[in-house]
Amino acid sequence: MDQSNELGDYLRARRDLVRPEDVGLTSSGRRRVPGLRREEVALLAGISSEYYLRLEQGRDHHPSAQVVDALARVLTPDEDAVAHLHRLARPEPRRAARRRREHVSAGMRQLVMSYIGTPAFILGRYLDVLVANPLAIALSPCHREGVNALRAAFLDPEPRALYADDWDRTLSDLVAGVRALAGPETRDPHLAELVGDLSARSEGFRRLWTRHDVRPCTSGATLLHHPQVGPLRLNYEKLAVTGADGQVLVIFHAAPGSDAARSLAVLADLAPAGETVPGAIEPSAPLS
Hints:
Helix content is about 45%, strand content about 10%. By secondary structure, it is α+β, with helices and mostly antiparallel strands. A 5-stranded antiparallel sheet has the order 2-1-5-4-3, with helices on both faces. The protein starts with 5 loop residues before the first helix and ends in an 18-residue tail after the last helix. The relative contact order is 0.13.
């Protein structure tokens, strides 16, 4: 996976996704590109075609903030994507490779296990499940400690059946969330290994990754189809774990008194008691 020109890769990917009519251009005749031409982006952004070509080709890595804003108005109106584009144009100095082992503090582990009637688990920086309470595992075996959520989503059939109607949105949100978490650091060797493996094994992942969508996901709602208790309309929250460098606490919850709340209570009775084995895990471990 070539990571030498993140800014150019992003501009090219977003240009392909914008239709001429979306930006007030008339699409006439036969076009050889799926989205905008380079000269059209340059014209709309108020810069020269030659300068825009240098940006895409990686011959100019540091456009001014004004140029980035102008390009963002053409290519992506979303605030998170605009912020991501600015980070690509002004990347921080590359940090040393991250340690492979991620640890959950004893306090956070105890907190997760204290949620008796609420599914809760912690995801690491590379979407490895670091700890999960019994109800989270009862909700989906893919929430077991050691499973990589990104691998499971694209390579394991179980999550597809669980999410059913929300499946396409779930996949899109997962990939966009990884992009948002990684920011311009897609050269991280562990992330590169994970992305490379999934790109080779899943056409669906490869297609979504090359879109360069950036969308942090912090909360929402989903409809799950559980094999034991039936449909579950749940809300979820994703909370950053302070001081844990990318770890996220994920909590599913139902509206009080709702059918989903009653179904969760039934599922909690079915869930085996006990705590997962403490300790660190290797990120991106293959599914067992």
